[in-house]
Amino acid sequence: MNHETGHRKIFGRRRGRRLGSRQLFNFRERAAEYQIPGVGQTENPERSPVDLADCGVRQGGQPVWLEIGFGYGEHLSHLARVYPDTNFIGCEHYVNGVARLVGELFESRIGNVRIHAGDVRDLLEVLPGESIDRAYLLYPDPWPKRRHFSRRFVTPQYLDLLDRALKSGAELRVATDIGSFVAQALEQMLFRMKYEWPACSPKDWRERWTDGMSTRYERKALREARVPTYLTFIKP
After folding, report:
1. Catalytic positions, written as ranges
2. Which of 31, 39, 147, 155 is the most exposed place for a label (fewest CB within 10 A)?
3. What does the alpha-carbon distance between residue 34 and residue 116 come to, in Å, rounded to a whole number?
């Protein structure tokens, strides 16, 4: 299934189960309180950089971390609690996931998260250059068939935009349970992008980062006997 946003086509689920009344309210009404304005192609056809201060992202040297495809948002809200002085931006086009995260942000009064409910390319295009200190890509759509590899995030159409937004020395953290995705990520990040991979032993890619948490996608992978891999890349 696919849907379009602007001139682009997005592949993957847009909706899951029918939203209940509270979730529908979260998505249609409350999400606006957390949404970053000026991202959509219709409202910003010139693709001018957004002012993060105007978006509610606090300034003053505080880091900005980005989660690409936050799913249901449990990892993003976890980090926001662990690091209350860090600014977080989350991107997700799955309606049910956005509704769930917005509800949690509101009920838990988490104020250091902003979201974009749509195509991550639209967000990356308008983020200021070198504005992101760390990015997460956790269990993204694996697109396991070879003919669909070009839809993966670890391709130039996405990575070049992310590279522009990342600061020098910034980290990209990737988690996946798909071996071919690991190989493609290593090829793109190390050989094409020339990023550093500071792994010294197998535990560096077999053990989750100490400040992270097990998401529902990781637990599903483990139940189905697939082994997660955790990669950290550093922009030179």
Report:
1. 141
2. 147
3. 8
